[in-house]
Automatic annotation (TrEMBL), chain A:
SUPFAM superfamilies: P-loop containing nucleoside triphosphate hydrolases
Keyword Transferase annotated: no
Protein name: Uncharacterized protein
Keyword Acetylation on entry: no
Signal peptide annotation: none
NCBIfam families the UniProt entry points to: small_GTP (TIGR00231)
GO biological process terms held by the UniProt record: regulation of vacuole fusion, non-autophagic
GO molecular function: GTP binding; GTPase activity
Database matches in Gene3D superfamilies: P-loop containing nucleotide triphosphate hydrolases
UniProt organism field: Aulographum hederae CBS 113979
TrEMBL record, chain B:
Region (Disordered): 1-29, 127-148, 275-294, 742-839, 844-863
Chain ranges of the Rab-GAP TBC domain: 445-673
Signal peptide: none
Official protein name in the record: GTPase-activating protein GYP7
Chain intervals with Basic and acidic residues compositional bias: 275-291, 844-856
Superkingdom classification of source: Eukaryota
GO molecular function per UniProt: GTPase activator activity
Bias-annotated ranges (Gly residues): 785-797
Extent of Pro residues compositional bias: 7-16
Keywords: GTPase activation
Length: 205, 863
């Protein structure tokens, strides 16, 4: 495989279906919001070039289906990730409660070199919805992130483009730091055979 | 992306209680475009011009003479619909000016005119320099508004409001005829119309007149007056026509500010298109431009445009695909671009240029293919198009005698359908296979309501041998049953007599269904409205509103969720239900159609994904067998998991084709005419279409996934189906050949134990052959414990414990002998073996899961 001249940062976006993963990604990359994105089937990604300090990096943002049974096939995409974004809907407590299992699942599937230090970012989306519907307070989410070792936390609205840029800037930094740390381990295999069947080892079934 | 046409018109909500048959008359009107005005009153012929030809082939003897005409229709009788919009748009373009919607620009072959011929001639010869004083009525031309549905005829009539631009190319005396290509807003192009001015009496007269008046036969543009000028003059009387600054051969019809911007400024890649197209048009005889290779020439000009474009789109996003799609009518020759040294340089300089160019070239090829769709498709056409390793497609045999190929590919109309049934008993008078064969090749008429009836047979809600009365009775009991099922969960919800776990599951499922319904096919008029207040004020959708059809969808899916407890609702199901409901427009009937559809689709939604894995694995075997070179390449890209086909297989290409084509594709697949897994041959057909691009330009799993994902809405259905059929036949013959050689189809058991033994996490006991890890699927359990895949026994789909070394070893084995993986098999001579998964493809019997299987792997609450 040809060596890439630029740094490619692989970011995985996870979370329950309908929390706004696709919308966040599209808001960040295309500066667009549509109320009628279809449910994501399979997986897709968008890329965006960003400047982190003085370096141009390419972010590859992976969007996957939210229903958890489809994740067993998603293992191929987790590999080589530099950062994982966990998204929930601040108006839906269930989507917050599942963050833990999304995190665990990711760590199992992606099996990063050092799971303890692998960068996560948590996003509470849909803060544009009226306050009365809010189910998870900022405080509670902050506490959760604190417990997970100080994971950065952002509250966003993909619809109103609130805080999206800021969140992804931190995501980019986290990913870049992770990528650079990984470069020291040059004996890490360059390519990993991706096999459908290999997902059996970690799936919940 | 929201359809700009649909939201403004709230669909008329049909009464859900109305009977299935009651519905049809009213609703059918909506299916029609302009074709339904067969009132005999006729339309007003404003202008016409004779001796305008379509050149279907390079041979002059195939030229078809006809008239181009501007026709006025009563605007009330017209529901102009863009060909690309859905099956049921209501008067979509109501915002456009009445004038341009009631005007049709048409081309009619002389042979189709009959008695009206004289009128056309008369109008042609009348003085056209002023608006017509007298109105001539002619029968509405037998035409179609889309380039797709006009198989077998080139005639068309397109509402002027639907014309995006005209590509106008004045004649060059002695070299070529002047031509006009009509590009629609939907992105279609009609075949080029060639003005044979020297035969056209009116043009000759007009030239003479101009010569008399000004002593200068050369009109405004400096060129000689010709038929195309006249057409522009007609149109300018009614609509705003603007010549593009960037592209002088493009005339924009009622351009928006955006259009003007796009075409007004600097030259774009359109330049490449144009000059290449000219090159193309003049083949084979008139290639006298000589000198520099035109591709190189235009490339030099285009280079900076590429770079400019690429700087805007360093990421190959959907926007890029869009930009490519806008480059209409590029000839397939541009594919050669990819081999040009200058392009290679460009590729090296810009990483994403490679994929951009690959997609661009492919878009071009697809476009020119679409242009050719106006021709009668024969397998020979496909053959000419193909240059893949799968290679020369054989001409499809013309079985079933009397019908010619083009006849067979005409959609089945309600009249034809009804003709197959006894008028008294309502029993089918021909065999189900004969019906299926017709639908497999032609599909069903999208507009006359035949789907409503025929789908129920295809989905096996009705028995093929049933009588009219039996079907009515069946429908009635199905209706009662649906009401009962729906009532059951409804009641339980209200009474709350369920465990807390059940209640929570139900709540989750309910909100999942609601979320998905609100984002399923909302661009279809039926599902677009939000005019009804949401019944549940606590719903997250309470403030956006809903409509009766969305609510019906939710009820049906909730009912299914309860009905099939072992599986429950899973994402993707709403995509499968929407077309059935839209066609039936009756919730109870649609529910049972969906339920039957789900019987075969169930395997796609299992919690352990075994059904999807099986299909992806089968595709893996299929590619190994039929296109080993491509397979090897995919292996290098770590792409033999074929995950990039996941979406296509899960919801049967629902996201890849536009609505109308999805309906067509599904009814074809439902016939199981060649194979109950024909959808895998559709996948192969798509893959083969793009194999060259994949092999030459894509260098990683992510690139393949992105490339394939973005094929969405660019794939031509008709040619894909033809190709898929050819591939099936080829597959069939390959299997026969191998079987003949091996005497018996199922050879000895492969020694695959080492692999399956190491995959400790594999809980599936059936560790047979290559299907080891996917053995949970239904088909492989039915297959005997016989050989591996075609050539290499599924090494690309190895197991959890499979190490890199093993993989390499297998690769080696494959390269050297196309052999069967490892172990004892390595000693075998080179031989192709048909895996059970592949053999299953020859079966027409639908693989349905038994209840136990669903219970074990479904992931619902029934477990």
């Amino acid at each position: 495989m040809a060596t890439r001249k630029k740094v490619l940062l692989k970011v995985i976006i996870l979370g329950d279906s309908g929390v706004g993963k696709t919308s966040l990604m599209n808001q960040y990359v295309n500066k667009k919001f549509s109320a009628s994105y279809k449910a994501t089937i399979g997986a897709d990604f968008l890329t965006k070039e960003v400047l982190v300090d003085d370096r141009i990096v390419t972010m590859q943002l992976w969007d996957t289906a939210g229903q958890e049974r489809f994740q067993s096939l998603g293992v191929a995409f987790y590999r080589g990730a530099d950062c994982c974004v966990l998204v929930y809907d601040v108006n839906n407590s269930k989507s917050f409660e599942t963050l833990d299992s999304w995190r665990d699942e990711f760590l199992i599937q992606a099996s990063p070199m050092d799971p303890e230090s692998f960068p996560f970012v948590v996003i509470g989306n849909k803060i544009d919805v009226e306050d009365s519907k809010r189910a998870i307070s900022n405080k509670r989410a902050q506490m959760f992130c604190q417990q997970k070792g100080g994971v950065p936390y952002f509250e966003t609205s993909a619809k109103e483009a609130i805080n999206v840029e800021q969140a992804f800037e931190v995501i980019a930094r986290q990913a870049l730091a992770q990528e650079e740390a990984g470069d020291f381990n040059s004996d890490f295999p360059e390519t990993i055979p991706i096999n459908l069947e290999s997902s059996n080892n970690g799936c919940a079934c | 992306m929201a359809n700009p046409l649909s939201p403004s018109i709230p669909p008329s909500p049909p009464s859900p209680s109305a009977s299935f048959y009651d519905m049809s008359d009213d609703e059918e009107g909506d299916y029609n475009t302009i074709m339904h005005t067969r009132t005999g009153k006729g339309v007003k012929l404003l202008y016409s011009k004779s001796k305008v030809y379509v050149h279907p082939t390079p041979s002059a003897k195939d030229n078809i003479p006809g008239f181009i005409a501007l026709i006025q229709q009563k605007s009330s009788s017209l529901a102009p619909t863009s060909p690309s919009t859905e099956a049921r748009p209501t008067s979509a373009s109501s915002s456009k000016s009445v004038a341009s919607t009631s005007l049709l620009l048409a081309w009619v072959p002389e042979s189709a005119l009959g008695d009206a011929y004289d009128t056309y001639v008369k109008v042609d010869l009348s003085d056209s320099s002023s608006p017509p004083r007298q109105s001539y009525l002619v029968p509405e031309p037998p035409t179609s508004t889309t380039t797709h549905s006009s198989l077998g005829t080139y005639a068309f009539a397109v509402p002027v409001s639907e014309i995006y631009s005209l590509l106008v190319r004045p004649p060059s005396l002695g070299w070529w005829f002047g031509s006009v290509v009509i590009n629609t807003r939907a992105g279609d192009s009609f075949p080029a119309l060639f003005f044979h001015d020297s035969e056209c009496e009116s043009t000759i007269l007009q030239r003479k007149k101009l010569a008399r008046e000004s002593f200068d036969p050369f009109s405004d543009g400096g060129g000689m007056f010709w038929g195309g000028d006249e057409v522009l003059r007609w149109l300018k009387r009614y609509v705003n026509i603007e010549r593009s600054g960037a592209e002088p051969s493009i005339y924009l019809v009622e351009p928006t500010a955006d259009d003007k911007l796009n075409f007004g400024g600097k030259p774009t890649t359109e330049k490449v298109r144009k000059s290449l197209e000219e090159e193309n048009k003049n083949t084979p005889s008139k290639k006298r431009d000589g000198g520099m290779d035109p591709i190189t020439k235009t490339l030099k000009e285009a280079r900076w445009n590429f770079l400019e474009k690429l700087s805007q789109v360093t990421t190959f996003t959907r926007r890029t695909a869009q930009a490519v799609a806008e480059n209409q009518n590029l000839p397939p020759q541009v594919r050669r671009l990819m081999h040009n040294p200058q392009v290679q340089t460009l590729q090296d300089e810009f990483d994403s240029a490679r994929i951009y160019l690959a997609r661009w070239a492919m878009g071009i090829a697809e476009q020119s293919e679409r242009e050719r769709m106006n021709r009668i498709w024969t397998a020979k056409d496909v053959l000419e198009m193909e240059d893949s390793a799968v290679g020369e497609f054989e001409i499809l045999e013309l079985e079933a005698g009397n019908l010619s190929l083009s006849e067979r590919r005409k959609p089945v109309t309600l009249t034809e359908w009804n003709g197959w049934f006894d008028e008294h008993t309502g029993r089918l008078q021909i065999t189900p296979d004969e019906v299926k064969e017709r639908i497999f090749h032609g599909g069903l008429d999208p507009e006359d309501g035949v789907r409503k009836e025929a789908w129920l047979f295809l989905l096996e809600v009705f028995n093929w041998d049933s009588s009219k009365d039996e079907r009515a009775a069946a429908l009635n009991s199905r209706r009662d049953e649906y009401i009962r099922l729906k009532g059951a969960w409804w009641e339980r919800q209200i009474e709350g007599n369920s465990t807390p776990e059940q209640a929570e599951y139900m709540r989750d499922q309910k909100s999942r269904i609601e979320k998905d319904v609100h984002r399923t096919d909302r661009t279809i008029a039926l599902f677009a409205g939000e005019d009804t207040p949401h019944p549940d004020p606590d719903s997250p959708f309470a403030d956006v509103g809903t409509n009766v059809h969305l609510e019906q969808m939710k009820d049906m899916l909730l009912t299914y969720n309860e009905y099939n407890k072992d599986l429950g609702y899973v994402q993707g199901m709403s995509d499968l239900l929407a077309p059935i409901y839209a066609v039936m427009q009756d919730d109870a009937v649609a529910f049972w159609g969906f339920e039957k559809f789900m019987e075969r689709m169930e395997r796609n939604f299992l919690r352990d994904q075994s059904g999807m894995r099986l299909q992806l694995l089968t595709l893996d075997h299929l590619v190994q067998l039929l296109d080993p070179a491509l397979y090897l390449h995919l292996q290098k890209l770590d792409s033999t998991n074929f995950f990039f086909f996941f979406r296509m297989l899960l919801v049967w290409y629902k996201r890849e084709f536009e609505w109308n084509n999805v309906l067509h594709l599904w009814e074809v697949l439902w016939t199981d005419y060649l194979s109950s897994n024909f959808h895998l041959f559709v996948a192969l057909a798509i893959l083969e279409r793009h194999r060259d691009v994949i092999m030459e330009h894509l260098r990683g799993f992510d690139e393949v996934l992105k490339y394939v994902n973005e094929l969405s809405n660019t794939i031509d259905l008709q040619t894909t189906l033809i190709r898929a059929e050819a591939l099936f036949r080829r597959f069939q013959r390959t299997v026969e050949a191998i079987d003949k050689k091996g005497n018996f189809p199922a050879p000895n058991l492969r020694q695959r134990k080492p692999i399956s033994a190491t995959s400790s996490s594999d809980s599936v006991p059936k560790a047979s052959a290559s299907g080891a890890d996917t053995g949970a699927g239904p088909a492989s359990s039915s297959g005997s414990a016989s050989g591996g895949a075609a050539s290499g026994s599924g090494s690309g789909s190895g197991t959890a414990a499979q190490t890199k070394q093993q993989q390499q070893q297998q690769n080696k084995g494959k390269q050297t002998q196309g052999g069967q993986g490892q172990g004892a098999a390595d000693a075998k001579p080179k031989e192709k073996v048909i895996s059970p998964e592949l053999r299953q493809l020859l079966s027409r019997k639908v693989e349905k899961l038994d209840k136990k299987e669903v219970r074990a792997h479904g992931g619902g609450v029934g477990t």
